[in-house]
Amino acid sequence: MMREYGRRRARRGMSLLELLVALSIMALAVGVLYRVLGASVRNVGMLQDQQKAVLLAQSLLAARDAVAPEGWNESGETAGYAWRVRSQPYDAAAGQPGITPLHSIAMEIRWSDGGQSRQIELHTLRPQRRPVAPSAGGGS
């Protein structure tokens, strides 16, 4: 008779302690999942801001296919992004005949992300604008 009682009790289900342990493990798992998803959402927002900054840099570069001999130094603000462009002569092929002189371009774009300042700096090369040749006609 005693054996039957022990078997019935084992089949009844989980004890309160087992239930509390299972709920604690589940709560920890949900907490970790919440942190991971929260970080992912923040990273997506940061990535979108960074993509907008790169798109702004591409637009600024597309507006100028060549740099004037005196260089390109300009700054401004567009849609919450502060930008600055600086150039200097690039000496790789300086003085060689038939080679178009190049300028090294440095673009710095800054923006605010939830009170935290972010920045991206991009570097590229652009050709120097060729001087305009005087017209051969010379008529008045």
Tell me the major beta sheet. Answer: 4 strands, antiparallel
Strand content: 25-35%
Number of domains: 1
Overall average residue pLDDT: 83
Binned, the helix content reads 40-55%
Q: Over all CA atoms, what is the radius of gyration?
A: 33 Å
Structural class: alpha+beta
**Side-by-side strand order of the widest sheet:** 1-2-3-4
List how many beta strands DSSP finds. Answer: 4
Distance between the termini: 127 Å
Helices, by number, come to: 2
Order of helices and strands: HHEEEE
Q: Which labels suit this protein?
A:
140 residues; 4-stranded antiparallel sheet; alpha+beta
Short description:
The chain has 140 residues and is an alpha+beta fold. It is 41% helix and 28% strand. The N and C termini lie far apart (127 Å).
Textual characterization of the structure:
By secondary structure, the chain is α+β, with helices and mostly antiparallel strands. It has one domain (2-127). Helix content is 41%, strand content 28%. It is built from two helices and four strands; from the N terminus they run ααββββ. It has helices spanning 2-11, 16-62, and strands at residues 74-78, 81-90, 102-113, 116-127. Strand 3 (102-113) and strand 4 form a beta hairpin. The longest helix is centred in the first third of the chain and has 47 residues, at 16-62. The termini are far apart. The model has no long low-confidence stretch (mean pLDDT 83).
